[in-house]
């Protein structure tokens, strides 16, 4: 498959998010908690609104889309956070009213999000600016194993290396291989630590992967 990777526009968020949610197939605890009802049209629209808002208020966010050049269809995407002037500060996860069905669900999503950000901060605290974190990487199931993930990664790494940024990723099993090819190394295999009230929820495990800056 011939793939083109370029920066995404506002109208690309929904098709990219559809690729992301289809890639996880409604089976990923972290994605399901942060983006409730993500296998429904309504849940995807809410997610799109949140991503649009985030990209408007945060200059650090950069989305890329991967397009199948023979059809023009978006088959995957990535979201990077890139910090050049200032390290990120702790900002709680939020969404418009109705995003989460109960305060408990929202609290759980916020706890998962905060546990992830804490891991990223373990890298940011020990490294100088510029810094980068890959937050989203997905290719729609019908297009996987055909090079789109590698193409997305290569484009992101070009931007990261042009800046000379140190980089961190919280990776899934599927993503780990891709990131190792780009020079990331697993530092720790971590179970996200959550408050006691969420003890009966499934454990979320990630590879904390890092890549030192290349100047
Ligand atoms: C991870 C993901 C983006 C890879 O996309 P892709 O388009 O299939 O990637 P590529 O075709 O470029 O393959 C990249 C390499 O990873 C390997 N690979 C891809 N998926 C793999 C998997 N599930 N398990 C093991 N290896 C895998 C490929 O064999 C290839 O290696 P090679 O170049 O040495 O042959 C895709 O599997 C996906 O969306 N997964 C679900 C979401 C997810 O887990 N994202 C990562 C979040 S951290």
From TrEMBL:
It comes from the Eukaryota. PROSITE patterns: GNAT. One of its GO terms (molecular function) is acyltransferase activity, transferring groups other than amino-acyl groups. InterPro entries: Acyl_CoA_acyltransferase (IPR016181), GNAT_dom (IPR000182), Trichothecene_AcTrans (IPR052523). Residues 132-214 form the N-acetyltransferase domain. This is N-acetyltransferase domain-containing protein. It comes from Delitschia confertaspora ATCC 74209.
